[in-house]
Amino acid sequence: MWGILTALLSGALMSVQGVFNTEVTKQTSIWVSAGWVQLTAFLTCVAAWLFSGRQSIPALLQVEPRYMLAGGVLGAFITYTVIKSMGSLGPARAALLIVISQILVAYGIELFGLFGVERAAFEWKKAIGAAVAIAGIIIFRS
Fold first, then answer.
1. Which one of 15, 16, 41, 60 is most buried, counting C-beta atoms within 10 A?
2. What is the DSSP string of 57-79?
């Protein structure tokens, strides 16, 4: 249950953040806005780290495979693409497409066992669910 609530909160926060970032971009620029997001996220993480136990930072040097450390780089491009898509499509349409993309890519990662994720068997009900979600976008767009 906690996982479901956390996922719902994550989606809500992403939508609100996308709107905020798009407005900041209109008043500054895309990379100023994205940089601000990343800087404030970093400062928030530092504050949380200071109050939550101070786990070892040098442990990052032990992370394997090394490409797993690229999450921050991906985060910068996620911020950029969310801002651009919300600015051109609007929050609802952009969020729908973002979520569909997340579902399809995440399912592909599970199916092929990419990035160290345990491989999952193909299930028709999941494929049909993705197709229904895509149909929903088509209906929503009309």
1. 15
2. SGGGGG-SSGGGGGHHHHHHHHH
